[in-house]
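User: For a reading group we're discussing how well predicted structures match intuition. Take DUF2141 domain-containing protein. Before you show the prediction, I'll give you the sequence so everyone sees exactly what went in.
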Amino acid sequence: MKAILSTFVLFVALLSHSFAFTTTLPADSATHKLTVTISGLTQRTGKLYVGLATDDKSLMGKSAITQTIDVPATGDATLTFADLKPGKYAVRLYQDLNDNKQMDFSGQMPTEPFGFSNVTMLMGPPSFDQCAFVLDGDKAVSVSVIEM
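Assistant: Thanks. Here is the predicted 3D structure of DUF2141 domain-containing protein, as structure tokens, for the group to look at:
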């Protein structure tokens, strides 16, 4: 009987111990807002395709999240990405002047205005780390359009 009681006490202790370590807190479900202001627009036509990248692949490939807005008649363009999870992001954009929904090139040089967060002058394609910023609360970033 003593052995059974000892086994039962050990079982209860192990069971309560496992609950203590497997109980998890809810994941951080907070989301944030990113406001992007685009300056340096000299051509007042077309649309702006603005994407968020989360790594090198999405910076130079398909964006993780994309928005399209009309180029305003005057001033800067502004758009907001809502409900973003905390993390590291980079903004990339191009201005589609001829409505073909893609960035145009002459050889390897872009023929349409473009831009990246944290980059005002290029000496070759930027890396994700050059363009990236940490989103850990609501944030505003500015991107200056570059024309070649």
